[in-house]
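Can anyone check this?
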Amino acid sequence: MDIRHLQYFVAIVKADFNLSLAAKRLYISQPALSQFIKQFEDSEKVDLFERYKGRLQGLTPTGELFYEQVKQLLLQYNSMLTAIREDAGQLKGKVRIGIPPLILGAVFSDIIADLIINHPNIEVEIIEKGAYELGRMFMVDELDFAILLDPTNINPSIIDEHLIQQSELSVFFHREHPLAEKEKLTWLDLNDQMLAIFEPSFMIHHKLMKKFSEYNIQPQKCTMSASWDFLLLLATNSKFLTILPSPILDIYSNHNIVERRFVDPIDWKVLLCHPKKDRYSKLHQYVFNYMLSYFKNKN
């Protein structure tokens, strides 16, 4: 149960156990609210609500105790948010964040928009480059933060790395492609296929080259691009296969495209990185904590 669910619980009590009214105030559906109650009580093996003919009538003794504790917790949470926002309101300056284009679309679009909208005094400069180029910029202090893939191949004495998302690379291709019949693919399935992959400035390119060498993969034709949407467009409209992180499906939906994972996959680990220093500016520390907290809550 997270803070949002605690707020749901309090809203139900304040609505005098009228689920329809509570759902309306929370801007969610009544079935979703009912499901939340059931899932929590089942998972914790407790009864929070008294019921009569299936309707909520009040709180059980356990529910009463829980309600008092939740109210205190929400008060502390709201006080903390107020303090953070007041402190953030005084923050001014510029942060430079290097992000590969694919990760910007698949992972970072929401948080960047939120950071810009809610912190007008903070200037956010986004540098879109491949992970290799961002690693170089990071080394020469041209970035405050870099979103890189594991391994970064940067000396651990100068970089602080935090895992924010983990997945794996998948193959995307047209639903009528013969490989669509398979539930999972082996790397040898790529032999003599037409492949569309990232160009060498991207870490994914080098991970794929290593795998192709390991399995002696010989594509029929291979084309490269720095644009993930172009790679997907090729796969959607031709016999080309493309290999991208599986979360790409969260931002690209097309009924003609299918995804298949590998039996022996390549991990895709996204890292939030910043340089190791004895002391960080207030702005730097705030933005770092903001991003880290966002992904911790999201995951």
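Reply from J.R.: I decoded it. The chain is about 45% helix and 25% strand.
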